[in-house]
TrEMBL record:
<dbReference type="InterPro" id="IPR035897">
    <property type="entry name" value="Toll_tir_struct_dom_sf"/>
</dbReference>
<feature type="region of interest" description="Disordered">
    <location>
        <begin position="985"/>
        <end position="1078"/>
    </location>
</feature>
<dbReference type="InterPro" id="IPR032675">
    <property type="entry name" value="LRR_dom_sf"/>
</dbReference>
<dbReference type="GO" id="GO:0061809">
    <property type="term" value="F:NAD+ nucleosidase activity, cyclic ADP-ribose generating"/>
</dbReference>
<dbReference type="InterPro" id="IPR042197">
    <property type="entry name" value="Apaf_helical"/>
</dbReference>
<dbReference type="Pfam" id="PF07725">
    <property type="entry name" value="LRR_3"/>
</dbReference>
<keyword id="KW-0611">Plant defense</keyword>
<dbReference type="InterPro" id="IPR058546">
    <property type="entry name" value="RPS4B/Roq1-like_LRR"/>
</dbReference>
<dbReference type="Pfam" id="PF23282">
    <property type="entry name" value="WHD_ROQ1"/>
</dbReference>
<keyword id="KW-0433">Leucine-rich repeat</keyword>
<dbReference type="InterPro" id="IPR058192">
    <property type="entry name" value="WHD_ROQ1-like"/>
</dbReference>
<dbReference type="InterPro" id="IPR044974">
    <property type="entry name" value="Disease_R_plants"/>
</dbReference>
<feature type="compositionally biased region" description="Acidic residues">
    <location>
        <begin position="1040"/>
        <end position="1053"/>
    </location>
</feature>
<dbReference type="InterPro" id="IPR002182">
    <property type="entry name" value="NB-ARC"/>
</dbReference>
<dbReference type="GO" id="GO:0006952">
    <property type="term" value="P:defense response"/>
</dbReference>
<protein>
    <recommendedName>
        <fullName>ADP-ribosyl cyclase/cyclic ADP-ribose hydrolase</fullName>
        <ecNumber>3.2.2.6</ecNumber>
    </recommendedName>
</protein>
<dbReference type="Pfam" id="PF23286">
    <property type="entry name" value="LRR_13"/>
</dbReference>
Length: 1104
């Protein structure tokens, strides 16, 4: 992209500036051209009143810079004029900035201009007489360059008037091409343009290249292409944008010729061109550097007819936009840019620009805007169209519109999206509808197996749909855009009723099920009971639907659905998804032999069926929220079952013993089964994930499968874990939170564990064996109220969460990874060595948080408040400590972060350092972290600014700091230690200044000697309580004679005054009673300082 385009004026004073030699053409060609431009409404600079001299003046230079297009008329005597040649140099400078140059060869041969030979060369030599070699070189290069620009040759035209008319048309076309700055309001466009430009490889003029732009309908492919043409057109001799290609039929040779005529007419700007064979394009364009954009290509034949790289001159580029990636592949186009969906932030901005004419929603529209974004599914076309339709409407209007938007959309959106569907093969159309209604966000293998008996080639069909950007894949799942799903429902609604394979209209489905009007052509039914008042399903409702594969009934609540136990129930059914199923069991004649997925969430079921059923295809059972379910059937024949979910089946007492034989069972979820007491042996399962949460009556646990990777046992009555856990060599995640009876866990865990959560458990002791977990990265012991000490932890640990461990006293050697995050919030009993261990951490990329009210003395640059200035230093690494006050402003839905910003004095750039979560502080805390600056920055003073940022926890708003802002509230004191090579080497041998960190442990300190030592340390800290960063300004408190040096500025006065106020508060604490006399002496000393400083301040003010 031409960065210079950003410097162009928003409006041009002149459309055209003409450079010409007056005696040659002023009264003839230029006069006629000016008249034609006036007729066409084109403004041209008039130089008749400018006095000619040997150099071009400021008026002419300004006119050149304020013109959009230049026409250089190269006549026989043009090069004899130094004025014209200097004018040309100025024009070419502007050409580099994005303005455009056109040429007219009036009575001269282009090659003579290029080489400066024959009569043109003689004239040039006359102008060069008495000129420097440098001036001659510049003029010569300018003439050579401009001669390469394709233009009109006067000798090729029989009629000058026709040539002038064509020039006027060309200028009009260039004026009508929107400059790239007009696309600036389009969110995310700049990033798209840069990526396509990198594929175009514009610096390589030795080749012709074709680049594809692919993506779903409405994603913005054409917009990107148009912006590229606008931005790059000045780099090419000729440009052309060919649209509406999708509808072009090229089977007949005549149609191909017509397409060539269309392209040549556009690119050469000659109406009514006729060609009699396909070789004309090559003859006309083989020596031209062209930019051709072929928009909305859908068939290979279109590229074969229009995009042959042999037809265009070196440096040419062809850009092809399409929804069909297969077309690009078959034409050999390897460089393809896939246009992705915008981010959440960009999506919200796109909608708001259309709906509110601003980049963020008004406060009262925030939630509604989020809902519209989700309906549109991040598609720019949908966001723009729906946003525009909601422009100026009230909140009540928005609320009323939302239900309609979920079912149907603007005709403009439908017309764009439907084209891709209509060009599919009939089998691919059927697969498209199945995915839209039943299988969006389902795994590829699941989709393939589900449609296996519908006579569709799922693998080939999925490939075709992906190539046409109608689906894409995320984590091996098939994903279709929300608006395409809406379109699919509209397609079904317009089909002939008796021939429909899928039923989606709730009222139509009620009629079919109540009156048994189904037929053998129906393959799937999907509806929501919220759309009906009552449904009484006939016992013979499914009798004629022998080919029904998919039955989906969504919704639950007060809507009434009545079924008969005698109902004939679908022998071919593969998917049964029925939320809030009203029966106590499935019908007696239920035949699940072909069933693959059984989803009966929130049902009234007490049991599934009687006896043992054949279940060879069953892979998933989901009974989540079936609160009346008392038992599960014998599942010994479900040999392919992979997932069993009984979440919140609160009446379920035990799992059947047959589960032990389900060797393919991978996921077993048993959360909040309050009555569950018995689980059979699981050792034979293939399970990699087992979740047992809220099973409050479960007191014992069976042996675990050896392949398990993720074990979550939370909120149970467990007192110990099974010994088999030691042999689970693949186990990575162990979550044992909220197990109050669990006082100890296994002496040895498998070394494969990476995450261990013991929070809110009854753990009293963690054994030294934890050090052997060399892959452990996360350890959570939060709210372990009985835990007194921590052993030495593995070096691999990155996250240690120990907040609210009210009994924790000792922490042994935290020699863990430098980028660790250590959270000791509200651990008030931490002893001296524990605090020392925390402070000595390097925290390169990490942080530490623990109770404290003062910055330790080792942080020798200190200041009260939220900012600190660091003097020049040869070192660029700093350790930072901040004292943070309790948080009384945050709410449950808000998160508070500490933010550190570094500002280099003399540099306008602010670089953000750490962002540390500090929510729910009940008392003052210390936060310690590490900052590394660029070596060039530390040669100047550095200002560190600390603030807290509040933001909401809702995921839909990505930048809540922009809404809630930063605040200095809560920043009490800050300090910095400059990390020299020596301090780093000696960091393990520090003497214990760290004791100054907190007043909180005084309540638990019984050793008077230790207390006296801390008081002395605190006195030193307070005596030096002013900002060390201000010491360079001249304020020094002499400890021997109590004299004060001259003041540099008012900040010194404020610093000492603040320190005195702080000291007065400190001596009121019980800890200072023994040394009150000494403290009072210090107060007098500070008062003397303030008096002296006040006098000098007054004298200074009087002097000023």
């Amino acid at each position: 992209m031409a960065s210079s385009s950003s410097s162009l004026p928003l409006t041009w004073k002149y459309n055209v500036f003409t450079s010409f030699h007056g005696p040659d053409v002023r009264k003839t060609f230029i006069g006629h051209l000016r008249k034609q431009f006036s007729y066409n409404g084109i403004t041209m600079f008039d130089d008749t009143e400018i006095e000619r001299s040997h150099i071009i003046g400021p008026t002419l230079t300004q006119a050149i810079r304020e013109s959009m297009i230049f026409i250089v008329v190269l006549s026989k005597q043009y090069a004899s004029s130094s004025w014209c040649l200097d004018e040309l140099l100025e024009i070419l400078k502007c050409n580099e900035n994005g303005q455009r140059v056109m040429t007219v060869f009036h009575g001269v041969d282009p090659s003579h201009v290029r080489k400066q030979i024959k009569d043109f060369g003689i004239a040039f030599n006359e102008a060069c007489a008495h000129r420097t070699e440098e001036q001659k070189r510049k003029w010569s290069e300018a003439l050579t360059y401009v001669a390469e620009i394709a233009g009109e040759d006067f000798k090729s035209w029989e009629n000058e008037a026709e040539m002038i008319e064509k020039i006027a048309r060309d200028v009009s076309d260039k004026l009508n091409v929107t400059p790239s700055r007009d696309f600036d309001g389009m969110v995310g466009l700049e990033a798209h343009l840069k990526k396509v430009e990198s594929l175009l490889d514009l610096g390589n003029d030795g080749m012709v290249k074709i680049v594809g732009i692919s993506g779903p309908a409405g994603i913005g492919k054409s917009t990107i292409a148009r912006a590229l043409r606008s931005q790059l057109s000045n780099r090419f001799q000729l440009t052309c944008f060919v649209d509406d290609l999708r509808e072009t039929n090229l089977v007949k040779y005549g149609s191909q010729l017509q397409l060539h005529e269309q392209l040549l007419s556009k690119i050469l700007n000659q109406d009514g061109m006729k060609v009699d064979n396909l070789g004309v394009m090559k003859r006309r364009l083989h020596d031209k550097k062209v930019l051709i954009i072929l928009d909305d290509v859908d068939h290979l034949e279109q590229l074969e007819v229009l995009a042959n790289v042999m037809w265009f001159g070196h440096g040419s580029r062809v850009i092809v936009t399409t929804e069909n990636k297969e077309v690009l592949r078959r034409h050999g186009i390897d460089d393809v840019y896939d246009v992705g969906f915008p981010s959440e932030a960009e999506t919200l901005k796109i909608l708001c620009l259309s709906a509110f004419r601003q980049t963020s929603p008004p406060v009262e529209f925030v939630e509604l805007a989020d809902k519209v974004v989700r309906i549109c599914g991040y598609l720019p076309l949908g966001l723009n169209v729906l946003g525009s339709s909601l422009w100026g409407k009230s909140k009540a209007d928005w609320i009323a519109e939302l239900p309609r938007l979920k079912k149907c959309f603007d005709g403009r959106i439908e017309s764009v999206l439907k084209v891709g569907y209509e060009n599919l093969h009939v089998d691919d159309q059927s697969l498209f509808l199945f995915i839209a209604i039943f299988f969006n966000y389902k795994h590829v293998d699941s989709v393939t197996s589900m449609v296996a008996e519908t006579n569709l080639d799922a693998r080939l069909g999925l490939k075709n749909l992906a190539n046409r950007c109608l689906i894409h894949y995320e984590n091996n799942k098939v994903v279709m855009h929300n608006l395409l799903q809406v379109m699919a429902r509209q397609v079904i609604s317009k089909q002939e009723r008796k021939k429909r394979k899928i039923l989606v209209d709730a009222q139509e489905i009620c009629n079919v099920l109540e009156n048994a009007k189904g037929n053998g052509s129906i393959l799937g039914i999907s509806f929501d009971v919220a759309e009906i008042k009552e449904l009484k399903i006939s016992a013979r409702a499914f009798e004629k639907m022998r080919n029904l594969f998919f039955l989906v009934v969504n919704g639950h609540g007060k809507r009434q659905v009545h079924i008969s136990e005698e109902m004939e129930f679908l022998p071919s059914l593969k998917l049964l998804h029925w939320e809030a199923y009203p029966g106590k069991s499935l019908p007696l004649r239920f035949c699940p032999e072909n069933l693959v997925k059984l989803n009966m969430r929130n049902s009234q079921l007490e049991k599934l069926w009687e006896g043992t059923q054949l279940l060879p295809n069953l892979k998933k059972i989901d009974l989540t929220g079936s609160s009346r379910l008392k038992e599960l059937p014998d599942l010994s024949n479900a040999t392919n079952l992979k997932r069993l979910d009984v979440y919140e089946c609160i009446a379920l007492v035990e799992l059947p013993s047959s589960i032990s034989n389900l060797i393919k069972l991978v996921n077993l979820l048993m959360e909040n089964c309050e009555s569950l007491q018995v689980i059979p042996r699981l050792i034979n399962l293939a399970s990699t994930y087992i979740s047992i949460e809220g099973c409050s009556r479960l007191s014992s646990f069976p042996d675990l499968p050896t392949k398990i990777r993720d074990l979550r046992v939370k909120g149970t009555a467990l007192e110990e874990l099974p010994a088999s856990l030691t042999y689970c060599s693949r186990l990575e995640i162990v979550d044992l939170r909220d197990n109050g009876n669990l006082k100890a866990f296994l002496t040895e865990l498998p070394t494969s564990v990476t995450s261990l959560d013991l929070s809110k458990s009854g753990i009293e002791r963690i054994t030294d064996s934890i050090k052997g977990l060399h892959k452990l990265q996360t350890l959570d012991i939060s709210e372990c109220k009985r835990l007194v000490s921590l052993p030495e932890l593995p070096c691999s640990l990155k996250y240690l969460y120990a907040q609210n461990c009210e009994s924790l006293v000792r922490v042994s050697g935290l020699f863990i990874t430098p980028n660790a995050e250590l959270d000791f919030r509200h651990c008030f009993k931490l002893d001296r060595q524990a605090r020392k261990a925390i402070i000595q951490q390097s925290f390169v990329g990490g942080w530490g948080l623990f109770p404290g009210s003062k910055v330790p003395a080792k942080f020798n640059h200190r200041a009260r408040g939220n900012s600190l200035t660091i003097p020049c230093s040869a070192f660029n690494r700093f350790k930072v400590c901040v004292v943070i006050s309790p948080d009384h402003q945050a709410r449950d839905h808000m998160m508070r972060h500490l933010v550190c910003r570094c500002k280099v004095i003399g540099d306008s750039v602010n670089s953000t350092g750490m962002k540390i979560p500090i929510k729910e502080l009940q008392t003052e805390h210390l936060c310690i972290f590490h900052i590394v600056l660029r070596p060039s920055e530390v040669r100047r003073k550095i200002v560190l600014e600390f603030s807290t940022t509040y933001f909401l926890t809702e995921m839909w708003l990505p930048k809540m700091a922009d809404v809630l802002g930063d605040t200095n509230f809560g920043m009490i004191e800050c300090g910095v230690q400059i990390l020299t090579d020596e301090t780093i080497r000696n960091s393990n041998g520090e003497s214990g200044d760290e004791d100054n960190c907190s007043d909180f442990r005084d309540a638990h300190e019984s050793d008077d000697e230790a207390s006296d030592k801390e008081e002395d340390d605190d006195n030193d800290t307070i005596a030096n309580g002013r900002s060390e960063s201000d010491s360079e300004s001249g304020q020094v408190l002499d400890k021997e004679d109590n004299e004060v040096e001259d003041i540099a500025d008012e900040d010194e006065y404020q610093s000492v005054s603040s320190a005195t106020t702080h000291l007065r508060k400190e001596i009121q604490r019980p800890r200072f009673k023994k040394k009150k006399r000494k403290m009072n002496h210090m107060v007098k000393k500070f008062r003397h300082c303030i008096g002296t400083l006040g006098q000098k301040k007054a004298k200074r003010a009087k002097y000023l």
